[in-house]
Each structure stands twice: as structure tokens, then as C-alpha cells.
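> example.struct
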């Protein structure tokens, strides 16, 4: 099996390093455990090297040091295994030398090969981590985009269930399922949707099974039910003789009729993953809220906010010290925006920008986010990349306005021009970003971190006052101080409240 990470190893450079260290010209080869071989030497030397490395790939080596293999015709292959983060072997690195070389030169080549293997393994593992981060960011983008699409359906929702059906239809396309249904306890028939190009066989039997014991079981268990395999023992009494993979997410609210979102895939389709389960649970919950409050236009806007909030919570789970940070920054920033006289779309841009301002931190490694000590210059640079990364993720969401994008993108700019990512100065920084910057600073100061305790409200206000005109907008800082006088209880953090003495 091809491995693009191994294919990109700088074998030509390795050859130059070996020649410089040992004084001997040699060819370098890299092979995967699947039998692919990359080679820097002469074409005539490749067949025996290729054959030897493919034989080595047939079994996993337990050796931790380079080994010699006599290829005949005066040629010596020195090879060593390459291992991934989990210590599994992913390939071999090898050099081809003249077998008549002195023992000293052969030994020196083995030492250099060991160092090159260590460097290659480090590069391989770093690339693995980078690819995993890229995949995670891609998944988060897909989830965020789906959230906004769902919110768009919420605004179109009417009394006749047309909005819910349109939402389910959208889910069948985005999640690539063959059937979606919302079962409501007080309704006789569920609301269903299927891909436009498909027609479900035995539809009546499927609906009967969904609305029967599967619905009752999921609502009683209050947990999602996932049945991917044919031999799942629950099938015989919940979904007997049905050739589908099942994901059923119940919603049981106090005082409200239970609901359940059901997604089906044909049994030869991909299995439902934990990510599918988590996203379906969020969608099921928010869909139930939308239905229960369809007469209230204001609640439809809240729908999208709560969906995005669920994703923000997942992002902030990388560091338990920042849990709730985005929601608190949103609350303080919206209050400050209103106090500063912002209205309409600007208030909305502040709200969304504040809620999503740290989305880009998904791309920062956990060991940097959670580091208890001081950051190195490179680690701080990784942190400073997050506003631009947030923009790169969020800009693909059509429903998010340019004002909200810029509000999140520039919240670390400083009015004196020394901020990041673009070094904007003064009024070049959108007013929405300047508002969020104060909200972000206030919450960061008054929240505990792994490396320091939370500051008091008064100490935070003093630090913010000192930053007026350099880091923060002086006029907005004055507005913030006035707001603190008028609404002090609205800005006090829960941590400070917890530290207050008992009366």
C-alpha cells in the first residue's frame, strides 16, 4: 500500500549526508511494508535491492539496530525498520554499499543510518499528527457548515412540517444516508425523507418498526441506539429482518413528548461512526426544540446558536480551563456592543464572531494549548495562527456574514498596530473585532488557566484600563467601564462568585 509520507522523505539529501560523513558514495532506498520501493541509485542496482526489501517487508522486524544483508556481486545492503507513533513498522530505510569497504566505514555507515532512521521516524510522526489535525479541521468545517444549513431550514419552518421534511431531506444528502425520519410521540406518522434518486423497499414495515419498539427502547434508554452489524442481538426484537444499518437518537425533554431522529443506511453501506452519532444527537435535540417552538420566531434564531455552541464545547474540550470561554466572551461582547451603540447586523456579527473566534484553535496541538509553563517562540507562533485559521474554516460557510468573519479574524489585532495576524492599526480594525477583543481579554483575565489563577473583576478592569490606547480601543474601554458600573453582576465570572466568602 502506498504511503505518501514515506514517498516524500528526502532520500537524495540522505545520500549526500552519508557521503559527507563516511567519504563513501552510496545509494539510499526506502520501502513500505506493502512493497513499494523508492530509490536514488543506478537503475541496474535497483532489482536486487527491490527484491531484498520486498522480502524484508513480508515480516515485521524486531530489530532496533541496522542489519547487514549480502546481496552478492560485492554489494552490501544495510537496512533498518521505520516505525510509526504506535511502534508499528511502516517500512524500511536502506543503503547500498560496496561489500569490500573496511569494517570501520561499514560501522560508520550503520551509525549514520540509525540517525537518519530516527529523523525519518520523527518526520513521519509529525506528518501523521499534521494529517490528523487536518482531518479533524475538515470534519469540524463540515459540521459547522451543516449547522448553518440546519439553521437556514429553521428560519423557513412553518406549521405544516414542510421545514422539518426539508431538513431531513438535507440530512440524507449531507450525511449520505438512505432514509431519515423524525418520530414524535404524540403524532401518528413520522416525518420522513429519502434521497430523491432512491425508493425504499418495504417502506411500511420499516415505518412500523421505527415507530414501535425501537422508538420506545431508545426513549426509555435515553441513549442513542447504533446497530451496524447483522448479528447485533438487539435486532431480533427492535429491527428484525431489516437490511439496514440503524442510528436512532432519542430526545426526551421534561414535560414534552419524546422524539427520535432515525437514520438508515443499506447494510452494505458505510457503518455509522461515533462522529455520526454525536452529530445526529445534536441535530435530533435541536430539531425537537424547533418543532416545539415553531410559533416563536425568536427561538428559531436560537436554534443555530445552540448548535454552534455544541461544536464550540467540543473545541474547548481540548483544554478544560477554557470551557465556556466562547459563550462568556459572546455574552460580554454583545452587552458591550449594545452599550457602544451598535445595532442590527453589527450586533449579530459581534455575537457570531465572539462565539466562533477560537475555532482555529482546533489546529493547535494539545500539548501547546494545555502547557502549564511558558511557551517557546515557536509555540507562541502556533497560537498566533489561530485567528487566521478560524477565518479559513469559517469563510466557507455561506450563511455567515463577512462582518462576522472579520470580527473573529481580527480579534487579536491591537490599536497600536502590534497585534496579529495582519498588524492592523486603530480604525483599520473592525469595530466588532475591537469589541470582542475587550470581551476576550476580560474573560481570559477572570478565568483560571493551567499556569495561573483567575484575576478579580477589579484587577481585570485595572489591566484593561492600562491597555487602553495600546492594545484596546480607548473609547470602548471607557464604555466597558461604564457598563461595569451599571451592570456589575452581569459581568462577574462564576469563578469569582465561587470564591466569595459565605455570609
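> example.seq
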Amino acid at each position: 500500500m502506498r504511503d505518501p509520507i514515506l514517498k516524500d522523505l528526502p532520500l537524495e539529501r540522505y545520500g549526500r549526508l552519508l557521503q559527507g560523513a563516511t567519504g563513501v558514495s552510496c545509494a539510499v532506498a526506502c520501502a513500505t511494508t506493502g512493497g513499494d520501493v523508492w530509490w536514488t541509485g543506478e537503475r541496474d542496482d535497483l532489482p536486487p535491492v527491490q527484491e531484498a526489501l520486498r522480502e524484508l517487508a513480508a515480516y515485521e522486524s524486531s530489530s532496533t539496530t541496522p542489519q547487514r544483508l549480502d546481496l552478492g556481486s560485492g554489494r552490501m545492503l544495510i537496512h533498518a525498520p521505520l516505525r510509526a507513533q504506535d511502534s508499528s513498522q511502516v517500512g524500511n530505510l536502506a543503503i547500498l554499499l560496496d561489500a569490500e569497504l573496511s569494517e570501520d566505514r561499514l560501522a560508520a555507515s550503520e551509525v549514520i543510518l540509525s540517525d537518519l532512521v530516527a529523523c525519518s521516524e520523527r518526520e513521519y510522526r509529525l506528518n501523521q499528527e499534521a494529517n490528523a489535525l487536518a482531518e479533524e479541521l475538515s470534519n469540524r468545517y463540515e459540521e459547522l457548515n451543516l449547522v448553518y444549513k440546519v439553521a437556514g431550514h429553521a428560519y423557513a419552518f412553518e406549521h405544516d412540517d414542510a421545514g422539518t421534511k426539508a431538513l431531513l431531506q438535507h440530512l440524507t444528502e449531507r450525511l449520505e444516508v438512505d432514509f431519515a425520519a423524525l418520530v414524535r410521540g404524540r403524532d401518528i406518522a413520522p416525518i420522513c425523507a429519502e434521497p430523491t434518486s432512491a425508493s425504499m423497499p418495504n417502506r411500511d414495515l420499516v415505518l412500523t418498526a421505527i415507530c414501535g419498539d425501537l422508538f420506545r427502547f431508545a426513549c426509555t434508554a435515553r441513549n442513542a441506539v447504533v446497530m451496524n452489524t447483522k448479528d447485533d442481538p438487539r435486532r431480533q426484537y427492535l429491527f428484525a429482518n431489516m437490511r439496514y444499518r440503524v442510528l436512532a437518537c432519542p430526545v426526551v425533554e421534561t414535560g414534552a413528548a419524546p422524539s427520535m431522529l432515525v437514520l438508515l443506511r443499506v447494510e452494505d453501506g458505510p457503518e455509522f461512526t461515533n462522529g455520526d452519532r454525536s452529530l445526529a444527537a445534536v441535530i435530533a435535540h435541536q430539531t425537537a426544540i424547533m418543532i416545539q417552538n415553531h410559533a416563536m420566531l425568536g427561538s428559531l434564531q436560537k436554534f443555530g446558536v445552540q448548535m454552534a455552541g455544541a461544536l464550540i464545547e467540543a473545541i474547548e474540550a481540548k483544554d478544560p480551563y477554557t470551557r465556556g470561554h466562547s459563550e462568556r466572551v459572546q455574552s460580554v461582547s454583545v452587552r458591550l456592543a449594545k452599550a457602544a451603540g451598535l445595532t442590527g447586523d453589527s450586533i449579530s456579527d459581534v455575537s457570531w464572531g465572539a462565539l466562533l473566534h477560537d475555532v482555529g484553535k482546533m489546529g493547535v496541538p494539545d500539548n501547546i494549548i494545555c502547557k502549564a509553563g511558558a511557551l517557546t517562540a515557536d509555540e507562541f507562533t502556533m497560537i498566533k495562527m489561530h485567528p487566521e485559521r478560524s477565518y479559513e474554516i469559517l469563510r466557507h460557510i455561506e450563511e455567515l456574514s463577512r462582518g462576522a468573519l472579520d470580527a473573529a479574524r481580527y480579534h487579536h489585532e491591537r490599536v497600536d498596530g502590534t497585534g496579529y495576524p495582519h498588524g492592523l492599526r486603530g480604525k483599520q480594525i473592525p469595530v466588532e473585532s475591537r469589541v470582542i477583543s475587550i470581551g476576550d481579554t476580560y474573560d481570559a483575565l477572570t478565568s483560571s488557566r493551567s499556569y495561573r489563577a483567575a484575576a478579580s473583576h477589579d484587577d481585570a478592569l485595572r489591566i484593561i484600563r492600562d491597555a487602553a490606547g495600546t492594545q484596546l480601543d480607548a473609547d470602548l474601554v471607557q464604555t466597558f467601564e461604564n457598563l461595569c458600573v451599571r451592570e456589575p453582576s452581569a459581568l462577574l465570572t462564576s469563578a469569582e462568585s465561587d470564591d466569595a466568602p459565605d455570609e
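> remarks
Residues 103-155 form the longest helix (53 residues).
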